[in-house]
Amino acid sequence: MKAVKCLCLAGVLIQGVWAELMYYPHIQVTPTNPVVGDTVAVWLVKGMHSNDCVPRYEDITLKVAQEPTTIQQPKFSVEVTYDEIWPKPDRPCTTLMTEYGPRFTLANLDVGTYCIKDGDTVANVFSVTYAPSVRGIVTPDLYPLQHFVKLAPIKGAKVYLRRVYASNALPEPESNKIGSPYPIAYLIVDSTITDNTGYYDFSCQVGELYDMVFVADGFRERTLSFFLRADTTIDVRMVPDDAAGTVSGKVSELRCPSLGEGGVSCFLDPVPRCTVTAYPEAYFQPHLKAYDTLSLEDMRRGTIAYTAVTDEKGNYTIADIPLSYNRYPLRITARKAGYKTETSTVTISNTDTTIQSFFLESDYPNTASDTVDGVVFAIAADKTRYTSGDPLKVRYTITNGSMATVRYDFTSGCQFDLYVTADSGELVYHHMQGRRCTEALTNITLSPGEKEVFDFSPVNISCDSRMLQITARMIGYDRSAVSVMAEVDCPSAVSPQILASSRGPKVRWSMRTGRLVLHLDQTQDVSVEAFSLDGRRIRNLCLSRRFAAGTHAIDLNTRLTAGGVAVLRITGEHFEATKKVSLVGSGLSKQITIR
Asked: Are both 134-238 and 366-489 of the same fold?
């Protein structure tokens, strides 16, 4: 008959030892921790009946099926069925306590968890895991000489395989050996030495995160981190102990001072006394597959940085940067107060010099200045183009470039004025500020070469105008005033399209004089903008103004226009018109209809 037995495990304390009482039949699996490629043996262990008899089992079958599951590791069921035959009462029986019954083998098992079921009872559980290997060849790396010299492999190199743990996952005292504050810890699980061909091999490992450390006389220690999931080949090159690379370059500022109505001209100026720092790139990417890191001792000390300072011409050189391998990645940062920090990644190699230059942008790139009697008055805004709602930050600087001491006296408590004016001439913002506004009388005294720097409080930009003139000065000293221009990007209002008609606006453009004629049926704000075909804004042809209902003739400034084709956009509160025009000399060539 088909037998379905309830298999139970219980425990009892016998003379201080926890003994296991087992009710049979019991299903046993060998090996207890199989890996991919192993053949698993399944044994049915015989049990003793109440009359001291042991049964025999016939027609035993095993059926393996994968269970539907959403977890990462697959789950399989192994169903066991059999006939349990007991001796007849008039026949003698064996009185052994236990005896192995039939043996079955399971081969070519996939990774996963296997539950052996005897009826509805789980009789045993085992898991099949990976047992991958990692192997490779260790050779010297003398780049760039390796292109011309055939190098022998490194024999006798020591290779250590380390498991990587969280520092709190290791039992004492292993975790104490690593120490705080580093969040990872290591435990050497295997080691080997390369043979005469430079070959190493670690077989039958557990799929985990590992470090491999390569140590050889005359070569720099190399540490490799990787996650072992399947059989892997990693060939490693080691550089000599004295392997080092160099990074060199220049740090410049791209300076585009405002030249007023004439436009903008840009210059490249060297940035002296700029700090350039190089960090190993691997420190910032500690979990990439097969990446090179610092040695363990270096990691304990923390990030290793190599630093240089630019000379008066903006040049820098960082030499003798140790390498753990050729084409070693470095993250290089150029940093100086008053400039936006720039970062780049380069690779360095033994005996080579890598060129890496930087172009820094000032914290206040929109600049202009004027010199009066040897004193330089300068204004700087933090942007050349703003969006509605952006804070406007302005810095005003007075530098005494003369040979004599200068003094400026103020009758009011504040010393500085800030004006923001729309291109229509309307004052948008005005504020007096200073370092000692609470005092009645103040002064600024500057010795030769001395400077005074003042940062105005930020002002939020609004869409009162699409072009702003920003002016700063000392109160009471009109010749100290200096200005820069800035554009404002305003969100376009969504309005219904209005076609040109007798009821709508009419726009005419004079062919010779650069005169724009508007016919408006109601009072409204009108802005005129001009753009080149590559999207650049032509400031000389832009305006924003409020007009009453009626006809208006507007003369636009085409005096400084270089010619070419432009797109003219005319926007009112209830209409928007676009005209594509040809700029010729001091005017526009012909009339284009609204579209």
From this structure: yes
**Under a CB-based contact definition with an 8 Å cutoff, are residues 114 and 62 in contact?**
no
Model pTM?
A: 0.50
Contact status, residue 342 vs residue 249, Cβ threshold 8 Å: no
- Would you put residue 56 in left (φ > 0), alpha (ψ -120 to 50) or beta? beta
Fold of 366-489: Immunoglobulin-like (2.60.40)
Question: 3-state SS of 344-380?
Answer: EEEEECCCCEEECCEEECECCCEEEEEEECCEEEEEE
Q: What is the per-residue pLDDT across 387-429, written as a single tens digit (0 to 9) for each?
A: 888 889 999 999 999 999 999 988 766 788 898 888 777 888 8
DSSP state at residue 176: H
Architecture of domain 134-238: Sandwich (2.60)
Q: Are 295 and 111 in contact (CB under 8 A)?
A: no
Topology of domain 506-588, per CATH? Immunoglobulin-like (2.60.40)
Neighbours of 431 (CB within 10 A): 13
C-alpha distances (whole Å) from 69 to each of 66, 74, 76, 80, 527 are: 9, 7, 10, 21, 65
Token couple for 497: 């399209």
Q: Within 13 Å and on the Cβ side, how many CA atoms surround 409?
A: 2
pLDDT tens-place string over residues 565-591: 666 778 777 677 766 666 644 344 333
Domain boundaries, the chain: 9-128, 134-238, 244-360, 366-489, 506-588
Tokens describing residue 583:
């700029």
Question: 301 by DSSP, 3-state: which?
Answer: helix
CATH class of 244-360: mainly beta
The number of helices, as runs of H, and strands, as runs of E, in the chain is 2, 48
Computed over its alpha carbons, how large is the radius of gyration of the chain? Answer: 42
The answer to whether 484 and 567 have CB atoms below 8 angstroms apart is no
What is the C-alpha separation between 207 and 503, in angstroms, rounded? 79
How far is it, in rounded angstroms, from Cα 334 to Cα 340?
9
b vs e for 247-265, b when ≥16 Cβ sit within 10 Å of the residue's Cβ? bbbbbbbeeebbeeeeeee
Q: Strand, helix or coil at 296?
A: helix
